[in-house]
Amino acid sequence: MKLNKFLKYTAVSALALTGLMSINSCTDDFEKLNTNPYEVDPTSLPFAAQFKEPFSYVYAPQQNMFQFWTNLSVDLFSGYFMTPHNFGGSGNVQYNLNRNFCGGMYENVYSHIFNNTRTLIKSCDEKGYKDYAGMMRVVQAYAISMLTDSYGPVAYSTVIDDPTNGVSYAYDSQEQIYNSLFTLLDEAIAGFKSSTSDKESMASFDYWCDGDMNMWIKVANQFKLRFAMRIVKANPSLARQKAEEAVAGGVLNAEDKDVLINQGLTNELYRMYYAWSDCGTNANLITIMEGMQDPRLPLYMTKNFAGITCEDGSIIEEGTRYLGIRPGHDIVAKPNEYVNYSYAVLDYTTPLPVMFAAESYFLRAEGALRGWNMGGTAKDFYEEGIRTSIKHQLAYKGPFAGITSISDAEIEAFINNTASQEDLVDPVNSKFNHKAMNTVGTKWNESASKEEKLQQIILQKWVANFPLSTEAWAEYRRTGYPKLFPNYKNNSDGTIDTDEQIRRLIYSNNEINTNNEELQNGIKILNQENTSAKFSGDLGGTRVWWDQAGKGNF
Q1: Measured CA angle at 171 (ends 170, 174), to 5 deg
Q2: Confidence band (pLDDT; 50, 70, 90) for 166?
Q3: CA 260, CA 255: separation in Å to the nearest integer?
Q4: CB within 10 Å: which end of the chain, N or C, has fewer?
């Protein structure tokens, strides 16, 4: 699958979708989007400019690519977002998976990120710029982790080595890919430690850390800690080893800034909500945050965007209630009442999120809970993670929400609160109602079981990591937390279990069209790593390597 050939097939697939989509939605100018940028080799761009695209496309700043990257797929399964309609029945809402809608992650990673990072790493290594190469190694590790976490086995090492000169690309197992991710990060850290480059020169194109090598080391280690935790069921000894290495090397803390891309790029989540009405807020997020009385809720979400006519004929006035949409609904088309439920708090200028410092505390809390050497206790890390998240989110989203302060007293009151998720009560259609799934409060209970403590840790990490859906969905699959409402409708034709929920994305039509022989071999590898007793093959119910069926969290 030559990358330029891959992009041409992407355009063909997208054109097939246009008849299914409404005007002013994700397929506008999609052919133009996907056929122009990489008709030229990215190495023909000025050296500094080559870094900007892979840095920024980890949170795609282009409207069509943003929607196809995760908003039509992973966003729906994370518990954060839910489309307020189902594209005339062709969307992924009810688990009747659309290969085109599942293919955006593939395109974004391979064409906008991997196509750049692989060439930049090679050229920077050849020139002795180990720190420059290190930045691209971290970006590549993040991008490939999102890709393999979503699909399972993917083409990785052969894309770098290209042994067939672009004829085909063999698949790596997810286990092999994770080993490669750890190697990438270790090589990156070594490059940062030996850096002799000028910080100001690097800052001109370093969209993540402004040329700060100390911060880059912490970011790389935090990814390493994240990836280590991901494989804890599949390879517990390696997970502990890599986690302890990461913490010893240093991760982000409260005094560090979050990794936010603030370079005048467009935050396309705004368009999904406010311009296209193709994105809404998931009822899981609303009921958890409102029920637990979370002070971050008004930083994350608005109250209802417009007046809503209820099932009983009453009217909910604009801006008076937080309202979320049940996953797996049967709302077919827009306009409807649900497009006026709660919106995300942001505008086009909101910086693009990559990594939050608070995550490191929740990762260390889980490690400590497991008895690993994390440098502190689970309780202390857990509570400091909440404090850090609230303070950092206030700095990040406060200007967009019109909120200037959250007092220390309010933060401590939340940390000591025992309130839990509220029931889902849908005022427009009571058939979507559901009892709360999570009964834990925020307050840490030292006498609680490890399982309950883990649920608290993961739930608070899930809230703190909003809106990073790829991470939220992966951690839900790994741990089962936070518990999410099951789909109201499951039209997967028996390929996804309603209670287990979707475990992976299916491979894209682009891959079938351009690399099918190797794809079929990749599916064989997927089956070898799959531990599901119910599903196998390229299905949404099949499990990736680290998602170990039948293994408890402890």
Answers
A1: 160
A2: confident
A3: 15
A4: C
Q: What percent of the chain has pLDDT over 70?
A: 92
- Angle at the Cα of 544 from the Cα atoms of 538 and 550, rounded to 5 degrees: 115
CB burial class (10 A; 0-12, 13-18, 19+) of residue 431?
A: exposed
Asked whether the beta carbons of 26 and 232 are under 8 A apart, the reply is no
Token readout for 240 is 């502990």
Residues 87-142: pLDDT tens digits? Answer: 988 999 999 999 999 999 999 999 999 999 999 999 999 999 999 999 999 999 99
CA distance 148 to 140: 12
Q: Give the containing element (helix H, strand E) for 354.
A: strand 352-355
Give the count of beta carbons closer than 10 Å to the beta carbon of residue 319.
11
Helices 236-249/213-230 angle, 10° precision? 160
pLDDT at residue 444 is higher than 80: yes
Is the separation of the CB atoms in 282 and 322 below 8 Å?
Answer: no
- Please report where in the chains the tokens 């890390």 appear, as a residue: 381
Place of tokens 């799934």: 437
Helix, strand, or coil (residue 346): coil
Q: Which two tokens stand for residue 461?
A: 């990490």
Length of the chain as a residue count: 554
- Furthest-apart CA atoms within the chain: distance in Å: 70
Residue 75 near residue 280 (C-beta atoms within 8 A): no
Q: What is the pLDDT of residues 321-366, one digit of tens each?
A: 999 999 999 998 999 999 999 999 999 999 999 999 999 999 999 9
- Which structure tokens are listed for 313? 């004929």
List, in sequence order, the alpha helices (H) in 466-529.
469-479, 509-529
Tokens standing for residue 532: 């599901």
Whole-number Å distance between alpha carbons of 426 and 94: 18
CA distance 213 to 225: 18
Residue 40 phi/psi, 5-degree rounding, is -110, 150
Q: What is the pLDDT of residues 277-304, one digit of tens each?
A: 999 999 999 999 999 999 999 999 999 9
C-alpha distances (whole Å) from 420 to each of 112, 241, 320, 417, 463 are 41, 35, 21, 9, 14
Lookup: tokens for 135: 């930045």
